[in-house]
Amino acid sequence: MADPTPSRLRVNGRPLSDHDIQRGLRLNITAGCMGMVWGTIVGGMPLTLFMKSIGASGVMIGLVATVGLVAMSLQVPAALLADRLPSRKMFWGWTVLPHRLLWFLPAVLPFLLGADSRWLAPAVVWVVAVSGILGQLGSASWWSWMADLVPEGQRASFWGKRHSIVSVSSLVVLLAVGYLLDAFPDPGSPRGTFLGFSLVFGLAAMMGSADVILHLWVPEPKPANPGDRMGVVARILKPFANRDFLWLTLAMGTWTFAMGVIGQFGLIYLSRELHLNYTNLSILAFSGMAGASLAGVMWGYVMDRVGARNFGAIMMMLAPLLNVAWFFLRAGNVPLPLPGLPSFEISQIMLVLVANSFFAGLIYSGVGLSQVSLLPALSPPEGRTLAMAAHWSMVGLIGALGPLAGGKMMDGLEAWKLSQGIHWSLPTGVPVSFIHVLLVINALLVWGVGVRLLLAVKHKAGEMAFRTALASLPFSNPVRTLSGIYNIYSMMSATSRGHRVDAVRRVGEDKMRIAVRDLIQQLDDPSTDVREAAASALGNIGSPDAVEALIRKMEDTNTDLAPQIARALRQAHSREAVDVLIRKLNDPDRETVTETARALGDIGDGRAREPLLRVLEHSQDAKVVSASSEALAQLGEMAALYEIIPRMKAVTNPVLKRSLAVAVGDLLGEPGGFYQVLVREQREPGREVDRLIGSIQDRLEENLNGDLKAAGRALRDKTTAIGEHVVSGRLRESMEGLFELAVGRAALRYGVKFGSDSEAFVETMIWNDTRFGLVVWCLDLLREPAADAGKSGSPDKTEILLGLYLLSKD
Fold first, then answer.
1. Cβ(95)–Cβ(138) under 8 Å?
2. Which residues contact 163 (CB under 8 A, 6 or more apart)?
3. Which residues pair with 9 in a beta bridge?
4. N or C: which end of the chain has fewer CB within 10 A?
5. Using N-to-C axis directions, what is the helix angle for 265-272 and 45-53, rounded to 10°?
């Protein structure tokens, strides 16, 4: 057996099996759930509300976020040090454990320093700063460690799965935190206490430490040689020589800056100006984390299909649209009826913001997952720790200015409003505030800079172009998008044939192009039902890659799906399929030929005319004749009439006769017109006969003047007589009357007289007016007795209706 490759060795040189890797990834997720409790508390709502409760200024609140982002710059020296150490894991543990333990301090500082913001606020900033320094010292080591541990083909799916699972712990802790903080009087009130915040920060410190300890059992792969021959500065700058790495770093720096501008200041606005309590704010955070949890389940799959770069850019484009909700908040309650439950009212502000937070969780998480998927791929394997450190440092330094700028603008705008005595309100009645300005600035930064920079990253070979990726996801309908992705998961996870068939059909109905790759796999499913449903779904989606897959499958001589694929290509309506469909017209299977003819008719490509005419001329199969006739009618091929009309006259099958009559009506009348006549006459016998007689007489009115008046009146009388013949069941006399009426109109309009030779008369009429000449020929043929002795010599109702319809269109 060959020796294990370096990527399959532990840091101590021992082999690292796939089983060990998967076990380590599961441990990582478990530990991450604990770490997420810590991150939710110290990086989210509780810390912001704590600073607000002690009366900290906007600048001081912004500084809390800024010092943490500035600390990210320490990842570079830490990475240089970690590259020289025997274990990234141990270095990470010794730096991150005290980083987490430091959060016991905010739990006790209020009792040591009191609630005076002049002392307590700077002390908290110092705790955040020192903790941030220690955390960032180990951050690059952790990311590099995970980049080596997670198999390359599983990156998007692993990070998506991990994100979803660890987010669940946030859902629980957010509700608990809101309830716990509201259980104690607000520290800013006369009888307030910091005990609620102390319990919350103490819980964060304990769970964060447990995260670090559990990580000790996660294996560490041996890293690639960092390449020490270059100098320190050259090593730091090396990854930025890759333009894609640089554009990603600048894009995420802009995103972090833009998010920092609004950041925690939305919580300040909701708490201070809209008077939401801690429980309400926890519910909003819970909704956001619920969206984030769902995002992890979905986005890993989506990124694998459309590409992480495309996906990140789409998420960035959507993010600022969520800002619009803040401009439509309205005071008051709205009824919320729920099935089976008594109706109750809910705050309109909460209703809008809960929905907004949910989609924000989905979208913001998508940007983050795109980043963690792209970064390892764009970082060089040699010196990956330092490359990632350089990325996060640059992102942190750019982003660090965002919260500081947001806090400065908050203080400045509020002071300006106060000094000017301004009390503006939105049309909804909600006061205009600093947050509305910050939201506009956020949108301009993301759309104007962030998206452009991310799209500058080149998409990988074989990856969708951005416009294609954008079209693949119907984000104009978020509910449909979520439903579509859920159906894809159902399709891939279903073990029952019936469940898989249902899921495949729903995926086709959703027209989710990202599912094409998985639907192609279903074309080889053991179940015929699944294979047929997959072909139909691909046709319903109809994208170029779906059509290409269907064409390849139809060309496979071993496939049993030719009729179903022809039907699917008919749905796709792609001219790319015409050549393979034309070849299939020679297939010995009648079902294949029938569906192929129908597909060619619907696609409407003129290349199919001659092949379809040959099929019609040589086939005796009623179903094939009907399908090819209909297809030729759709293509407007008048030459088909010379085959269709004689067959219609000779056929004894009433269904086939009506089908051929519809094809004649489509060619000589309006597409679909004669079909409507048949349906209406079947529903209400006699109605269409009267209407068509009336229509013919109206057209004759145009010629009732001068020398033609008498002739026109005679034709009107003949038309009336035809109607009476039809009503009395004298169909032979009716058909003779129709032919005579056509002859009279020919004389009236073209001056062509009918002698005893109908063939010569028809040829003359075709020379003068091709369409009307063909109508006359049709009527002449239909009035002749059938050559088949087994058929009645009289025409039937379908033929009479067709004659009336054709003359009504002249």
1. yes
2. 292, 293, 295, 296, 299, 365, 368, 369
3. 15
4. N
5. 50
Helix (H, G, I), strand (E, B) or coil at 346: strand
So what's the pLDDT on residue 45?
72
**Cα separation of 360 and 177, whole Å?**
21
- Distance between CA atoms of residues 406 and 310, nearest Å: 29
Q: What amino acid is encoded at 338 in this protein?
A: L
The number of beta carbons lying within 10 Å of the beta carbon of residue 634 is 20
DSSP-derived 3-state class of residue 108: helix
Q: Is the Cβ–Cβ distance between 278 and 49 less than 8 Å?
A: yes
Residue 456, φ and ψ in degrees, nearest 5: -70, -20
23-58 exposure pattern, b = at least 16 Cβ within 10 A, e = fewer: ebbebbbbbbbbbbbbbbbbbbbbbbbbbbbbebeb
Element (H, E) at 517: helix 516-522
Alpha helices in 573-686 (DSSP H): 578-584, 590-603, 609-618, 622-634, 641-650, 654-668, 673-683
Query: Could you tell me which residues come within 8 angstroms of residue 776 by beta carbon, excluding any fewer than 6 positions away?
Result: 739, 742, 743, 746, 761, 762, 765
How far apart are the C-alpha atoms of 407 and 397, rounded to whole Å? 17
Report d(CA 365, CA 174) in Å as an integer. 17
The C-alpha atoms of residue 86 and residue 223 are separated, in whole angstroms, by: 10
CA 264, 266, 272, 277 dihedral sign is negative
Determine how many CB atoms are found less than 10 A away from the CB of residue 688: 22
Task: Show Cβ contacts of residue 88 under 8 Å, excluding neighbours closer than 6 positions.
Answer: 11, 82, 141, 142, 144, 145, 220, 223, 385
Taking the C-alpha atoms of residue 717 and residue 704, their distance in angstroms, rounded to an integer, is 13
Question: How many CB atoms are located within 10 Å of the residue 614 CB?
Answer: 13
Instruction: Quick: pLDDT tens for 284-323.
Output: 877 887 787 777 667 777 888 888 899 999 999 999 999 8
pLDDT digits (tens, 9 = 90+) for 410-442: 888 888 887 877 778 888 888 888 888 999 999
Cβ neighbors of 229 (< 8 A, separation 6 or more) are none
- How does residue 2 score in pLDDT terms, banded at 50, 70 and 90? very low
**Rounded mean pLDDT, 79-106:** 83
What is the C-alpha to C-alpha distance for residues 489 and 497, in angstroms, rounded to an integer? 15
365-368: long-range contacts, CB 8 A cutoff, minimum separation 24: 365/163, 365/167, 365/291, 365/292, 365/295, 365/296, 365/299, 366/295, 366/299, 366/311, 366/312, 366/314, 366/315, 367/255, 367/312, 367/315, 367/316, 367/319, 368/163
The C-alpha angle with vertex 42 and arms to 185 and 322, in degrees rounded to 5, equals 95
Q: Considering only residues 795 and 113, tell me which one the structure prediction assigns the higher pLDDT.
A: 795
230-254 per-residue burial string, b: 16 or more CB within 10 A, e: under 16: eeeeebbebbeeeebbbbbbbbbbb
Q: Which two tokens stand for residue 287?
A: 């909704």
CA distance 211 to 586: 67
536: closest CA among 519, 551, 524? 519
Tokens of 507: 């995926």
User: For residue 272, what are the β-bridge partners?
Assistant: none
Note the pLDDT tens digit of each residue in 231-279: 777 777 888 888 999 999 999 999 999 998 987 788 788 887 787 877 7
Phi then psi dihedrals of residue 85, to 5 deg: -95, 155
Q: Which residues of 490-525 are buried (b: 16+ CB within 10 A; e: fewer)?
A: bbeebeeeeebbbbbbbbbbbbbbbbbebbbebbeb
Phi-psi region of 340 (alpha: psi -120 to 50; beta: other; left: phi over 0): left
In this structure, what is the dihedral angle of CA atoms 490, 492, 493, 494, given to the nearest 10 degrees? 70
As a whole number of angstroms, the distance between CA 384 and CA 83 comes to: 9
Q: Are 543 and 516 in contact (CB under 8 A)?
A: yes
Find the helix or strand (DSSP H, E) in which 128 lies: helix 117-149
